[in-house]
Amino acid sequence: MKLTDLLQNIEVSEHSAELGADIKDICFDSRKCKPGSLFVAVDGNLSDGHRFIPKALENGAVAVVYQNPEYDGKIEGAASVRVASSRSALALMASAFYDNPSSKLTLVGVTGTNGKTTTATLLYELFTQLGYHCGLLSTIANYIGRNQLPADHTTPDPVELNGLLAEMVDSGCQYCFMEVSSHSIDQDRIKGLTFAGGIFSNLTHDHLDYHKTFDNYLRCKKRFFDELPAGAFALVNIDDRNGRVMAQNTAARVYTYSCGSMADFRCRIMDQTMEGMLLKMDDTQLWTMFIGAHNAHNLLAVYGTAMLLGADKDEVLTIMSKLRAVNGRLEYLRGGNNVTAVVDYAHTPDALENVLKTLRETAKGEYLICVFGCGGDRDKTKRPEMGAIAGKYADRVVVTSDNPRHEDPLDIMNDIKAGMDAKTRAKSVFIADRKEAIRSAIMFAPEGGVVLVAGKGHEDYLIIGDEKMHFDDKEVIAEIFDELKA
Length: 486
Description:
Elements: H1 3-6, E1 12-15, E2 25-27, E3 37-40, H2 53-58, E4 63-66, E5 79-83, H3 86-97, E6 106-111, H4 116-129, E7 134-137, E8 142-144, E9 147-149, H5 158-170, E10 175-179, H6 182-186, E11 197-200, H7 208-211, H8 214-226, E12 233-237, H9 243-246, E13 253-258, E14 265-273, E15 276-281, E16 284-288, H10 293-308, H11 313-320, E17 331-334, E18 340-344, H12 349-362, E19 368-372, H13 382-393, E20 396-399, H14 409-417, H15 422-426, E21 428-430, H16 434-444, E22 450-454, E23 461-464, E24 467-470, H17 473-485
Parallel strand pairs: 2-3, 3-4, 4-5, 6-10, 6-11, 7-10, 11-12, 12-13, 13-14, 18-22, 19-20, 19-22, 20-21
Antiparallel strand pairs: 1-5, 7-8, 8-9, 14-15, 15-16, 17-18, 23-24
C-alpha cells in the first residue's frame, strides 16, 4: 500500500517531499522494522518512540510518522510525516492498511470495570450457537471462529487488533464481540474502528494508578460512547449511577437495562442456589447455571444485545439456559469433607464484594473463607478497601500474594491490613506464599465450608520481579484436594 493511501484520513502537519513509498507493514517497535516498514514513533508511557527512529531506519524502515516537531527536517533516508498525534495516526493507518476490516462485520464493544469478559464471551458463545461465524477479543483469549489465539492484553495494539479483525473477515466472521479497556480508549487503540454497538456494564474503583482520579477514569470510558456513530446502539446499565452519564452525548441509539428499575430490558432474580439461579428476563422465566446479581446483569446485557441485533427471543433464551461460566469466573472445585473451592478473577473492591456477597447468600450459612491479594506496581488505594470488604463477608480471611511484581509482598499485605478493623484482623492470617495460603485456607475449612480464591481467575502465572512463573489457582486447589484425600 502507498504511504499516501494510509494518510488519507489523517491531518498532516509537516512532511518530506516524497510520500509515494510502498509500505509493506506498520511498526511502532523499531526492533520489528524491516525493509519496507512504516515506523510510527509513539510517545509511550515508559519510553519515547522518537528515540528509536535511527534504529527503525537502520532496520529498513522506508517511512517515519512522528509527532515531535523537534524532528522536522532531521529524518534522512526515508519519507517523513509529522502528525498531531502519532497514537491516533497509528490506529487510523492500521485500519486503512487492513482495508478497514471493522466495517465489514458487526463489531460490538463491551466496556466497564467488571463484567466485560463474561459479557463478551457469552455473546460470542450465544451467537456461535445461533449459527453465526464469530470472533472474540477478550482478556482470556482471542477467537476466530473456534480457533483460539493467545491474548496478551485486554485490547490489543492497533496493528494487531486490525490484523485480527482482518483475519476474522477473511475467515467469514459475521460478528465480533470485544472487550474495550480504558487503556485502549485513552491510548487510541480503537480509533478508526466501526462499532455497531457498545455496552456499558458498570464503573467502580480500578486503574487509578493510570488514570489518577475516578473522574478521569469515568471520562475515558464515556469517550467510547461519545464516539459511537449514529447508526450504532448504546446499551447501558442504569443500576449503575454512571450508566446514564455514559450515554449523555452519544449519537448512538440509547437503550437501558436494569435488574431493579424501569428499563428497555429488565431482569429479576426469582431464586438462586450454589447450582444456579432462576431469572425473570422481561416476561419469561429462565434457569441459568450462573449465580449472583452481577451475573444477572451480565446475562441481561447479553440478552438485550441479542434482541438489538435481531436474534429470535425464544432461541436466545433456550441457548442462554445452557451457557456455562467463563474460565476463572466463579468456577467450582469440590474436595473431600464436602469443601467447595471457588476461583474468581475478582481483583477490584466491587468485584470482590459482589462475589463474596453472592457466596454468602447462596452458601446458606456455610463457613466462608476468602483468599486474596493485590497486585504490585498497581493502584494502591484499593488495597485497604478490599481488606475491609473481605472482613465484612468472610468468616476467615487469608491475605496473600497476587503478582507482587517489584513490590515487597509484605508491604502490599500491610496496605491491605490497614483497611481492616480489629475484628477483621483477629480472623485474618497473612501468608505471602500463595500456594501455602490456599493450602491453609482449605485446611481451615470445616465440613461443607466454602473457600473463595480471588484475584487471578483464568491467569496461570505469578509475576515476581521481572519473572513470570507458572501458577494456576485451579491446578493448585486440585493438587491440595488430592493430597488431602491420600
